[in-house]
């Protein structure tokens, strides 16, 4: 995704030796009880977003099930044309259908934190990557929001399978799912960027409270903000400067999975 403003990289380090490898389309690295796994599949080779999501999740689930790091904490999903199609035929909803099919048994105890965002590449590549650990974490839901897996039928045949956040095993880092202007199960403040940003921040604050993490988003809270319209980036940067001036920020041009949402935030909150 195109960065809107300053670009930065993200690096995950462990204080143990790291091994890495490849199994078909799946690439992985692991060390010190942590596993990173990523898969990229071309929809043209697998038949649309539903079948491709099922394949991607099946491959990841099998790999994780055979790994000592079998507790998936966090997943990121990026797909093309996420809002194309109407009603149950929106591509995001097809993705949700396939995701649940491919998830298998490793999520029987609950879903991981997640993000699902639309990219703008011409090639319809589904990219899914995850972080898993050898010890269980703690799932966190947001008291201001209906849990995504309990969304009513109007949002699709298959509710989105993710938790609002996970507290990683040492209890010192919160992995925050894509968070947007959703109250209860409804999108709030249609066509109003500033109100959506304010509601999103209220949701993020509530998530910190529910997780017993320190309040606020400071230098210990690296965040990504996904913006539907590139010309909204300046207002998003201004909002961040006012409300989270020291948070390391990456603003990206991406589509939010509900077409009435303009902005979504995900990232990390360290206990510091
Ligand atoms: C929402 O709150 C916004 O399908 O994995 C946020 C994070 C959203 C993850 C997903 C969807 C997903 O419902 C959408």
How is the secondary structure organized here?
Layout: E1 2-3, E2 19-23, E3 26-31, E4 34-42, H1 43-46, H2 48-65, E5 71-80, H3 91-103, E6 113-119, E7 125-133, E8 138-140, E9 165-167, E10 173-179, E11 182-183, E12 186-187, H4 193-211, E13 223-227, H5 233-243, E14 249-253, E15 255-256, E16 263-270
Parallel strand pairs: 5-6, 13-14
Antiparallel strand pairs: 1-14, 2-3, 3-4, 4-7, 5-7, 6-15, 8-9, 9-10, 10-16, 11-12, 13-16
Bound molecules: 3-(2-carboxyethyl)benzoic acid (3EB).
The CATH superfamily bears the name RutC-like
What is the CATH top level name?
Answer: Alpha Beta
Summed up, the domain count is: 1
CATH topology: 60s Ribosomal Protein L30, Chain: A
Ligands present: 3-(2-carboxyethyl)benzoic acid
Number of distinct beta strands: 16
Note the quaternary state here: single chain
Determine the fraction of residues in helical runs and give it as a percent range.
10-25%
The main pleated sheet reads as: 7 strands, mixed
CA radius of gyration is 18 Å
Please state roughly what percent of the residues sit in beta strands, choosing from under 5%, 5-15%, 15-25%, 25-35%, 35-45% or over 45%: 25-35%
Query: Kindly state the mean pLDDT as a whole number?
Result: 97
Spatial separation of the terminal alpha carbons: 29 Å
Shape: globular
Architecture (CATH level 2) name: 2-Layer Sandwich
If helices are DSSP runs of H or I spanning 4 or more residues, what is the number of helices? 5
Give the SSE string: EEEEHHEHEEEEEEEHEHEEE
Low-confidence stretches: none
What strand order characterises the main sheet?
1-14-13-16-10-9-8
Provide the structure class.
alpha+beta
Domain Chorismatase FkbO/Hyg5-like N-terminal: 10-132
GO molecular function, one term: lyase activity
Pfam family, one: FkbO_Hyg5-like_N
Keywords: Lyase
């Amino acid at each position: 995704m195109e960065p809107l403003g300053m670009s930065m990289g993200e690096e995950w380090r462990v204080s143990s030796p790291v091994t890495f490898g490849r199994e078909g389309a799946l690439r992985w690295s692991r060390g010190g009880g942590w596993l990173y796994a990523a898969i990229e599949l071309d929809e043209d080779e697998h038949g649309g977003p539903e079948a491709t999501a099922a394949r991607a999740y099946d491959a990841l689930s099998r790999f994780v099930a055979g790994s000592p790091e079998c507790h998936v904490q966090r997943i990121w999903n990026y797909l093309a044309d996420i809002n194309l199609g109407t009603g149950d035929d929106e591509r995001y909803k097809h993705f949700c259908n396939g995701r649940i099919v491919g998830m298998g048994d490793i999520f029987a105890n609950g879903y991981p934190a997640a993000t699902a965002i639309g990219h703008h590449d011409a090639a319809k590549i589904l990219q899914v990557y995850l972080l898993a650990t050898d010890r269980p974490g703690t799932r966190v839901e947001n008291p201001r929001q209906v849990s995504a897996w309990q969304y009513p039928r109007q949002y699709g045949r298959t509710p989105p399978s993710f938790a609002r956040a996970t507290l990683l095993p040492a209890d010192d880092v919160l992995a925050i799912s894509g968070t947007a202007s959703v109250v209860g199960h409804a999108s709030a403040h249609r066509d109003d960027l500033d109100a959506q940003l304010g509601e999103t921040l209220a949701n993020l604050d509530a998530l910190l409270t529910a997780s017993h993490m320190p309040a606020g988003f400071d230098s210990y809270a690296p965040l990504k903000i996904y913006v539907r319209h590139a010309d909204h980036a300046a207002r998003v940067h201004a909002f961040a400067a006012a409300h989270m001036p020291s948070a390391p920020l990456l603003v990206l041009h991406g589509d939010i999975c509900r077409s009435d949402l303009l902005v979504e935030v995900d990232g990390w909150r360290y206990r510091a």
